[in-house]
Amino acid sequence: MSRGGCSSGSYNGMERYATIDPKLKFVIVAGGVISGIGKGLTSSSIGVLLKACGWRVSAIKIDPYINVDAGTMSPFEHGETFVLDDGGETDLDLGNYERFLSVSLTRRHNITTGKVYSEVIERERRGDYLGRTVQVVPHLTDLIQDQIMAAAVEPVDDTGLPPEVVIIELGGTVGDIESAPFVEALRQLRYRHGQENVCVAFVSLVPCLGVVGEQKTKPTQAGCSTIASLGLPPQLIFCRSDRPLLQETRAKIALFAQVPVEAVVSLHDVSNTFRIPLMMQEQGVTNALISSLRLSWRLPILLERWGRMAMAFDTYRGECTIAIVGKYTGLADTYLSVIKALEHAGMALHRKVHIQWIAAESLESLDATAADGKVLPNGSPTQRHLVYQNAWRELASANGILVPGGFGSRGIEGMLAAIRHAREHRVPYLGICLGMQLAAIEVARARLSRGMNANSTEFDEHADPAVVIFMPEVDKTKMGGTMRLGVRKTVFKSDVSNSIASLLYGRKPSIMERHRHRYEVNPEYVANLENECGLRFVARDETGQRMEISELDRSEHPFFLGTQFHPELKSRPGAPSPPFLGFVAAAAGLPLDEVAIEKMMLRVQSQDPWQPSVEENQELYASLGN
Q: Where do the Glutamine amidotransferase domain residues begin and end (predicted)?
């Protein structure tokens, strides 16, 4: 084997697996017909079933696009960029894995064509291939397997032990030219690691056509045929549909795919995504996985807690409406983690959270003299003015206002107007990253002497005063991976007895949260913002120079909180993010005094599906044979 772990030209490559635990199991999840069919949630739900049985589970996402990572991709095209503890900017499906499985993944767990080709070219330039012709097989496929194996053995949970089962999701659609090298690499992995250690799951669409809603199986038949012809015959087939599969539909798919009828699983629409693992369990998926992977038989003991959590999502005691004022409101996936964090908080508080999407630009004041001014020559309002009126009507009716992260100057004045409304009308406000920076700008414009033109150098290079500035250590020339990324320590000040953030985090002296930003509150104006404007910075980074959490005093505002970090990225069902929990509680009109918060946090901690009671732990250990 040559340097870098790539085989020196042999097509055998069995030495690659010599140090891998032979008991390590893989579940490969691929899809056909169309992309975006739900492979990520299917993979996460499979992981839930296995983890509920007591196995340590990890997940890997393969993205066939040529981008090195998701950091520079448009949110309109690809949805949100999910940031990991180590600063990896990844596909949003890794967020699904982390939320469902309560794990912390790394950049290794997101493999892209860009990463693979970059590494192969770098190895070739170093001379690692000793002058050989570098080819897709074996060099590219070997490297893909190297990257899979490196990620597969990495601990991802609190035990610090390597995973026992790894879910591998192949993005895109089987048969696409982009995914061909990855399919071949997975075929080789299945052969080399042992077919008894690999289960192939195929996710497909079963459309219902016509007035009677006939379920069409041909797309699934074609997809199964394609993936089988590539050396990955499916052992489980998950069929997405808006209604449960008929028995004759399942039988027909099973016949053409050469699998038992029990291996064809109906993934029809449900009231919430937390019910998907329960739906799988009802159809015997856990037993099918155990059989395919030659695992010892176990009961999914912890699935009962998951079921109670899923039921809590549909049973609530009250409602509240949150207005999200952002730049990318046309695509909900752009703010997927924010949506999920609100769901987690609402579920914990038994409150139904309704989201009102408001495009920030629609809140910006109109110039009556402009071509798209308030009225037409006949006196009727313009379409632009109607949008403006509706946006403000929706904002005024919201119980809470949230401004999430973003980049660029578009819509900034609309966000500032929303923050001003929240501050002046005492509406609960949560600002994340850009939302915290804009809160500092809005308060400075309103209260800081000579602060009328306060701004960020991101929007105005000559801003005076420049309340928000570019971080000195950040590269201004390269876009990818150059921000302040990943988990960082945030330290609370010692004199924050009345801080709502400190209470929500359980009076911890410090916390670890994930970041993704290039700009920060200007340290030169912190004293002015605190003393003149009443905006308190209750937590900073380890150096004390970078502001992390800002608040207005609770005597002035019931809940006005900003975080430079992204708390939504570590929110979990059953373990919601503290800032989101406090925000939803405030929006729902729940008390937020110290005693009420302590009781709320204790109640929430008992709902975590992956923190079983003593009795449940004993039952789980008994099922493991310990």
A: 332-584
Helix (H/G/I), strand (E/B), else coil: 310 = helix
> Residue ranges of the alpha helices (H) in 477-539?
500-504, 526-531
Q: Containing H/E element for 94?
A: helix 93-101
**Distance between CA atoms of residues 106 and 155, nearest Å:** 10
Give the pLDDT band of residue 375 (cuts 50, 70, 90). low
Catalytic residues: 433, 566, 568
Tell me whether residue 613 is exposed, middle or buried, using C-beta atoms within 10 angstroms of its C-beta: 0 to 12, 13 to 18, 19 or more: exposed
Structural domains in the chain, CATH included, are 25-312 (3.40.50.300), 317-606 (3.40.50.880)
Assign 372 a pLDDT band (cuts: 50, 70, 90). Answer: low
Question: Residue 336 is encoded by which pair of tokens?
Answer: 């997927």
**Residue 287, SS3?**
helix
CA 508 to chain centre: 25
- The set of residues, in sequence order, having a beta carbon less than 8 Å from that of 572 and lying 6+ positions away, is 98, 99, 102, 344, 608
pLDDT band at 32 (very low <50, low <70, confident <90, very high): confident
Tokens in use for 580?
């989101």
pLDDT digits (tens, 9 = 90+) for 289-327: 999 999 999 999 999 999 999 988 888 899 999 999 998
Give Dmax over CA atoms of the chain in angstroms. 82
Q: Output the pLDDT for position 622.
A: 61
- Alpha-carbon distance 209 to 602, whole Å? 49
Nearest to 80 by CA among 88, 68, 90, 65: 90
pLDDT tens, residue by residue, 207-255: 988 766 789 999 999 999 999 999 999 999 999 999 999 999 999 999 9
Res 491 pLDDT > 80 = yes
- Answer yes or no: are the C-beta atoms of 606 and 308 closer than 8 Å: no
Tell me the C-alpha distance between 427 and 626, whole Å.
53
Contact 406, 327 (CB under 8 A): yes
- On whether the CB atoms of residues 429 and 404 are closer than 8 A, the answer is no
**What pLDDT is attached to residue 223?**
94
Task: Give the residue among 235, 241, 292, 291 at the shortest CA–CA distance from 269.
Answer: 241
pTM for this model (two decimals): 0.90
Which DSSP string corresponds to 49-76? HHHHTT--EEEEEEE-SSSSSSTTS-HH
